[in-house]
Design goal:
heterodimer; A: 217 residues; alpha/beta; 5 strands; B: 175 residues; 5-stranded parallel β-sheet; two-stranded antiparallel sheet; 6 helices; 26% strand; binds flavin mononucleotide
């Protein structure tokens, strides 16, 4: 069995997707990763895929779907169905929002896409709340890292898809009423925006944060 | 003003496209994405934390983006490719992110971002189907646009289906 990994982040190597991939492949001896942001190389990536029988796609949620670069690759794939037929495919999608509901429509489509391509679907895993992964110290992401590594280990050992692992990783569809109420309190205190405010201030752009440059066009 | 975005990727809907372009849609602005130089979003967040509201990529996209706050309707025309909207339309949508503000609020019981502008245009989607398009594909796409409308706090007007080989004149007159 051989695994080809597609990192579908428009950020390429410096992405949360790459961190998630590194967790997943902990127990793999060697893996190959292709970066879908390199759109001009999509044809050659299809050529490369021929010698693999398992594909892993990892990418962020972009405006409720996959990044456009990923969709571009899917369209190319659909013109080469014979290359992908019967290969096994696994998706890990992740989102800025910390609720799984945002990724559910994409999950539905990915299942349909595997069907169109006649590929064997291993599963779609959802990781909500990935925005800060690449900036967080490892202890803050340790739990997620462990969960993803366990899924990777199972996969590497040919253990079938485990529903419990998926459910644990994606958490509730929306936050409980209590958690939403807590969020509202933090919001009132201005604590939910710290992540962005810090970056705005660093860039001397804090005073311009509500700018609406095209409002009078 | 009606902002009409043509996300057809090649000449396979030439009849539809020719008629669309010949029509005189008053009070509308038309963009044919494949004839414009538009790059992919790179996820740099400059439009949120460096130059709020302005994209770091300088290309033809600003012509479109700058018109969105003053549009009443956004009409998206997309073929179904591999069971989903076209990558051209997806590229257009990914780069809408300067319209949104980084701050998160609870809206209709879910996390959503604050809006940078008071209003965004309601959305109408015209879907050009292929032989393999199923009712379920359209249901998934409709649900996708409902979610996008939730994020942009506007309304989804409707998703109009144009089946392969079917009449489409009424769709064009009703744009
Ligand atoms: C253009 C753009 C659109 C995005 N759209 C969504 C979205 O609709 N829902 C969401 O939860 N997160 C959204 N995000 C957040 C990303 O999913 C999140 O930042 C992710 O961690 C990026 O992963 P990466 O570093 O691997 O690219 C968006 C980010 C960008 C740049």
């Amino acid at each position: 069995m051989s695994l080809l990994i597609f990192n579908g982040s428009p950020r390429g190597e410096n992405s949360n997707s790459n961190i998630i991939i590194s967790w997943f492949i902990e127990e793999f001896e060697s893996t190959t990763t292709a970066y879908l942001k390199k759109v001009k190389q999509h044809e050659s990536m299809i050529e490369e895929a021929k010698s693999f029988d398992q594909l892993l796609f990892v990418f962020p949620l972009y405006v409720d779907g996959m990044p456009a670069q990923v969709k571009h690759f899917f369209e190319r794939m659909s013109q080469h169905k014979e290359v992908f037929k019967d290969k096994e495919v696994l998706f890990i999608i992740h989102s800025g929002f910390s609720e799984a509901i945002h990724s559910k429509n994409l999950e539905k489509y990915l299942t349909r896409f595997a069907d169109i391509m006649e590929m064997k679907m291993y599963g779609v895993f959802i990781i909500p709340g990935s925005e800060g992964f690449r900036m967080m110290p490892p202890r803050m992401t340790a739990k997620k890292a462990k969960q993803v590594a366990a899924i990777g280990r199972d996969y590497q050992r040919n253990i079938p898809f485990q529903k419990e692992a998926k459910v644990a990783l994606e958490g509730p569809l929306v936050h409980s009423k209590a958690k939403a109420a807590y969020f509202k309190i933090l919001q009132k205190l201005g604590l939910t925006n710290l992540y962005w405010d810090r970056q705005l201030k660093k860039n001397n752009a804090f005073d311009k944060r509500f700018d609406a440059p095209y409002s009078k066009m | 003003m009606n902002l009409i975005i043509n996300g057809i990727t090649n000449s396979s809907f030439s009849e539809f496209e020719t008629q669309l372009e010949q029509m005189d849609h008053k009070d509308s602005v038309y963009f044919k994405l494949r004839d414009l130089q538009i790059n992919y979003c790179q996820g740099c967040w400059d439009c949120w934390v460096k130059t709020p509201g302005i994209c770091a990529i300088k290309d033809d996209y600003e012509q479109i983006l700058s018109r969105i706050p003053s549009a009443d309707q956004l009409t998206i025309i997309t073929p179904i490719l591999a069971g989903y909207e076209s990558s051209l339309i997806k590229k257009f949508k990914d780069r809408l992110i300067p319209m949104i503000h980084p701050y998160i609020e609870i809206y209709k019981g879910e996390q959503h971002h604050r809006q940078r502008y008071g209003k965004t245009p309601d959305i109408k989607v015209i879907v050009l189907e292929d032989e393999d398009t199923t009712d379920e594909d359209i249901a998934t796409l409709t649900e996708l646009y409902k979610r996008t409308s939730l994020n942009l706090r506007n309304e989804l007007i409707e998703v109009v289906r144009v089946k392969k080989g079917a009449e489409f004149e009424h769709v064009l007159t009703d744009i």
